[in-house]
Amino acid sequence: MSMYRKSAKQKQLEYLGKYLSNGYQFALVDELGEVKSAYLYQYETKHTRVLKGQKIVKLKELFDSVLSQ
Q1: Where would a tag sit more exposed on the chain, N or C end, judged by fewer CB atoms within 10 A?
Q2: Which of 61, 50, 6 is nearest to 28 (CA)?
Q3: What is the domain extent for residue 53?
Q4: pLDDT per residue over 20-66, tens digit each?
Q5: Is residue 1 part of a domain?
Q6: Quick check: is 2 in a domain?
C-alpha cells in the first residue's frame, strides 16, 4: 500500500492513459471533461449521438490539456 493519496490530476491521467494505451483515439466527453465513450477510429464518431454539452475530442489533446494544468 502506498503512503500517499493520489491527486485528482494523477487519477485522471491514469484513466486517460488506459484509453490511450489500448489504442483509442477519440472520446465523447461531457461538460465536466468526463469520458462517456471512446472510439478507435474517426468514422465511428460520425454515428454517435452528441447530447447538449458533450463533444468529441482527440484523447491525446485531452491528455495534454490535463497534463498542462
Answers
A1: N
A2: 50
A3: 8-67
A4: 999 999 999 999 888 999 999 999 988 888 889 999 999 999 999 99
A5: no
A6: no
Q: Which amino acid is at 4?
A: Y
User: For the whole model, what pTM was predicted?
Assistant: 0.80
CB 11 within 8 A of CB 69: no
In angstroms, the CA 44 to CA 39 distance is 7
Strand pairing of 35-39 and 55-58? unpaired
Q: Which residue has the cell 461531457?
A: 30
DSSP-assigned letters across all residues of the chain: --SSPPPHHHHHHHHHHHHHHTT--EEEE-TT--EEEEESSHHHHTT----TT-EEEEHHHHHHHHHT-
What's the chain's length in residues? 69
Give me the number of domains the chain comprises: 1
